[in-house]
Design brief:
This protein is an alpha+beta fold. The protein is built from 9 helices and 20 strands. Strands 1, 2, 3, 5 and 7 form a 5-stranded antiparallel β-sheet that branches. A 5-stranded parallel β-sheet has the order 17-16-18-19-20.
Length: 412
């Protein structure tokens, strides 16, 4: 109620005093009280007119740092707003409207506005924390001012809202086992060579400037002309992360606004965390849906900043209707030889066949199942490094458990 009442405590007292003066003057026949009440009403009217001349001056600018906060992360918001008044105003209050996806204290005292013909600038800073991923509207920025006598207050909404993207949380996952590096290169590039073995490399004729160290002596003797080894081509090893968005794996709420389904939120966090770990290890990562659709642009190996930026692409991702195949992974995934990380929800008995084909070829098949319960023994026996994560559970601990299964196999 106080938010919509235009009078301050002092102004409310003046209004009640004016009303009492009019009543007593009429009943007791005291004309002086009538004059006194009229003076108070005139003062209140003048205060109202002075506030009506107060207006915003220029646009409101907000700077959010970091630009894309994570769920649970802290961001600092710097606001700069201009306001102009024909008469000086007493110190007031400012408030920035926070969306449901952000929490914090976005209000405080605003300074006095000086009536000098120019606009006064209000600069404030406050911290917010990400509560739910998504794209949220921050604002509008409101300034509450009072007249010079402190009788009337006016609330002014300045500027427009600012869009803030809250990304899913990236957990710090454990490093990959040494076996993954042997299969395709942890933190290093793989060498693509044409042919099999050092003696079967494709050779080409010698050209001026070629190093003598690269002469292919067997090919030279065979062709009776100098031949050199074909240049080796380096490329980052490839990895794939699959996020199963089929709504049958999750609660129907997962298809609504981001943050509605706790299990799906855990899965999205696990997905972006796996991408960050694989990129840090030197893999170029593709992120796909279970129907084969690309969910984000491929991230080059070693580009940690790009991996974190990619998380912003998952700020608004939601579950989708099931496709007719109901597969956990695309059919093409069965031919992948690099690391494959699959993040899914509730599994069905018929899912084991499609998952088994992937585990047979992948150098590092990791399966994270986010559900209340899961029986993963058969999948582990089939080659998957599988772990179960409860909704809202510790993704990093589940990843550690899956990776340790790989260490156990290496030990044997």
């Amino acid at each position: 109620m106080r938010r919509f009442w235009p009078f301050t405590l002092r102004g409310t007292g003046a209004l009640l005093l004016a009303a009492a003066a009019f009543v007593i003057a009429q009943r007791a026949g005291i004309p002086e009280l009538l004059y006194f009440g009229t003076l108070l009403v005139a003062l209140l009217a003048a205060s109202t007119v002075s506030l009506l001349l107060t207006r915003g001056a220029g646009a409101v600018t907000r700077v959010v740092s970091p630009e894309v906060p994570e769920v649970g992360g802290i961001a600092t918001v710097s606001v700069r707003a201009g306001i102009q008044s024909a008469l000086p105003t007493a110190p007031g209050r400012w408030r920035d409207s926070l969306p449901a996806g952000l929490t914090g204290t976005a209000e405080g005292a605003s300074p006095t506005i000086v009536a000098n013909g120019a606009s006064s600038t209000i600069e404030v800073r406050y911290d917010v924390a990400g509560v739910a991923r998504g794209v949220h509207a921050l604002g509008p920025f409101e300034v509450t001012t009072t007249d010079p006598f402190g009788l009337i207050r006016r609330r002014i909404a300045l500027g427009r809202t600012t869009t803030v993207t809250v990304a899913p949380t990236i957990r710090d996952l454990a490093a990959l086992p040494g076996a993954a590096g042997e299969a395709g290169g942890s933190r290093q590039t793989t060498t693509l060579q044409i042919g099999q073995g050092a003696d079967n490399l494709v050779a080409r004729p010698y050209a001026p400037g070629d190093s003598m160290r690269r002469i292919h002596w067997r090919a030279t003797a065979h062709r009776d002309t100098l031949m050199v080894r074909q240049e080796e081509q380096e490329s980052s090893p490839a990895a794939t992360v699959v996020l199963d968005r089929a709504v049958s794996r999750w609660s129907p709420l997962a298809a609504h606004a981001p943050g509605s389904d706790r299990a799906f939120e855990t899965a999205v966090s696990a997905c972006v965390s796996a991408v960050a770990r694989l990129v840090h290890e030197g893999y170029t990562v593709d992120v796909i849906d279970s129907d084969g659709a690309l969910l984000a642009d491929p991230v080059e190996g070693g580009d940690d900043a790009d991996a974190r930026a990619t998380a912003a692409a998952f700020a608004s991702v939601r579950a989708r209707p099931d496709d007719p195949s109901h597969r956990v992974v695309p059919a093409a995934a069965a031919g992948l030889t690099g690391p494959v990380v699959v993040v899914t929800g509730a599994l069905h008995p018929e899912d084991r066949s499609s998952l088994g084909a992937v585990a047979q070829r992948s150098a590092l098949p990791v399966l994270l199942v986010v559900s209340d319960d899961a029986d993963l023994d058969r999948l582990r026996a089939g080659g998957w490094r599988a772990a179960h994560v409860r909704p809202g559970g510790d993704v990093a601990a589940a990843w550690d458990g899956a990776i340790e299964q790989g260490y156990a196999r290496v030990g044997r």
